[in-house]
Amino acid sequence: MIVKMMKYDIVLFAAERERFIESLRQIGMVDITTTGWEPTESDRDLLLEIESRTKALSTLEAIVKEEKTTTQSVDSATVFATYTAAQAEITAAKSEITRLEKSVDEWKAWGDFDTNHLAELAKVGIVLRYFVTPTSTYSKGVEQWSEQYNLSLVSDEDNMARFVIIGDGTEQIDIDAQEIKAPTMNLSALTSAVKAAQARIDAAEQTITACAAHRDVIVAELATLKTKLQDVRIAATADSAAEGLLVVLEGWAEKRNAERVDALLEASPNTVYIKSDPTPEDNTPVKLKNNRFARIFELVGNMYALPKYGTIDLTPFFAPFYMLFFAICLCDAGYGSVILAAGIGLLLKGGPKMRQAALFSTICGLASVAFGFAANSFFGMTISDAPLFEDFKFLDFQNQFFYASLGIGIFQILFGMAINIVMTTVTYGFKNALGSLGWFLLIFSSCAAGVAGMFGVEWYSFSSVAYLATAGVALVLMLLLNKPSFNIFANFGVGLWDTYNNITGLLSDLLSYIRLFAIGLSGGVLALVFNSLAMGLTGLDAGIEQFTVGTLFQIIGASAILLVGHGINLFMSTISSFVHPMRLTFVEFFKNAGFEMGTRAFEPLKNE
């Protein structure tokens, strides 16, 4: 349900704007319009400060959850600066380790030697120059090269020859080999430098852990910065009048809180306001209020968009379908139990921020367990093979659900069209819903006639008078009354064009629901395949005649195959079960239900 809003046009002295905004924050009920705000350079710096502190808090919260401890302390007045410096130290140390490890890899094959000795040799005119070339190239050229230069092979590993040419450093060397820069540190020094850099990382991580104990300081700083950003946006978008003496603000409040907002405005000195109901032309902010079940699925709807104010919130209507579609796509009681366990784990350990996701996982897991049981599948095994359930009547998913998925699709499409008809009638009047009503009647009557024919009901078959009359009425509504403001000829032309679009669109929509069957079937087949592989490759499919050490290895091998195989299948099936019902909701259901997208959420000013 979309919460009813009230619009406030407020005029006050510009000098009192900050005091007035602060009073609005105290009650936390008014959203001030800042549409069209474009950040300046200083505003972008403010946004970066907010973003950096938000990321810092996310990192520190994770440290708290991991229950890391440290004896180190930090000054609570400089927590964020200390955290930032520690993060910079970690980044620099990691970069240094990468560079040093690359040098270690390059010089490991050369052996460990003292670079100080090389410097002493260079002082007396003896310079070593280092070369690398493939072993085959070295073998072909070494005899000729040795005649021209004082050459010594150092190592021949990984099909690469590493050698030095000893001279005074001024000679021109022309050979088929790559010369590399002489080392500045020996292998021992490089290894020690890596350890030192890692020690810097460990110390910085201890500092960050100490910062986690004072994260409330960053929370307070973040709240202050967000408040400052609100003031910046309001100041930048507010209209001024009377040569800047007055400022005009547009505010929004929930209708149920209007009396408290009115009281604040009445008590505010030198403030004039006009209260009115929103109009279709207003960019009214949207807030949803649903029951406990539907509220869980706001998580899904918000991934697309909020509904436009003045229309209808479709969350309560698509929520049961989404839960069912998820269960159909997963189609396994075992996989459903894993999702259910993950949801319960999040409920117990995830905290308030993860509660909605935890409830979503829990309810979808429960639905998957129920449907998977009905479909006779538990980690790819047939439940009816168990003696306890051998007399239970299960759904033959593979042979029966193809047409069931089409039936579910037709039902949801008709349900969406019915919602669209009701909303169009309420918003624009019944005559504007006649075209949609015609399509609804035609599809519904055709489905009813098809079902009646299957059961031998003659009075509503495709050739019956009742069906033909219904279809005739539907065609008149579709072709002649679809646009009340048009004349009959324009209506007929528009109706024909809509007929083409709707037929192709509805066919495409309906075929999309077949994927419910296909995804559920593919997951079940893969689960069965992994079970067969585990038993067949380890020989356990022949049974265990005598338990030996070899049998133990067979069981371990089968368990590994099952764990990896079902893990992959569960991951892929869960993604499909999450994404495809979302597609059916956003594309098929929202389109047929006439969903209109909102542009802003209701975000009242409040003290963080």
Please give a quick description of this structure.
It is built from 19 helices and nine strands. The chain has 608 residues and is an alpha+beta fold. Among the domains are: 48 residues; 73 residues, no CATH class; 278 residues, no CATH class.
Description:
With 608 residues, the chain is of the alpha+beta class. Among the domains are: 76-103 and 193-212; 113-185, no CATH class; 315-592, no CATH class. 61% of the residues lie in helices and 9% in strands. The chain is built from 19 helices and nine strands. The chain has helices spanning 17-27, 41-65, 79-107, 115-123, 135-148, 187-212, 215-237, 258-267, 292-296, 298-301, 315-330, 333-349, 355-374, 397-428, 434-454, 465-480, 488-512, 514-538, 549-592; strands at 5-13, 30-32, 127-134, 150-157, 160-167, 178-180, 239-241, 246-254, 271-276. Strands 1, 2, 7, 8 and 9 form a five-stranded antiparallel sheet that branches. It has a four-stranded antiparallel sheet with strand order 4-5-3-6. Strand 4 (150-157) and strand 5 form a beta hairpin. Helix 2 crosses helix 6, helix 11 crosses helix 13 and helix 11 (315-330) packs antiparallel against helix 19 (549-592). The two termini are 26 Å apart. The relative contact order is 0.11. The model has no long low-confidence stretch (mean pLDDT 85).
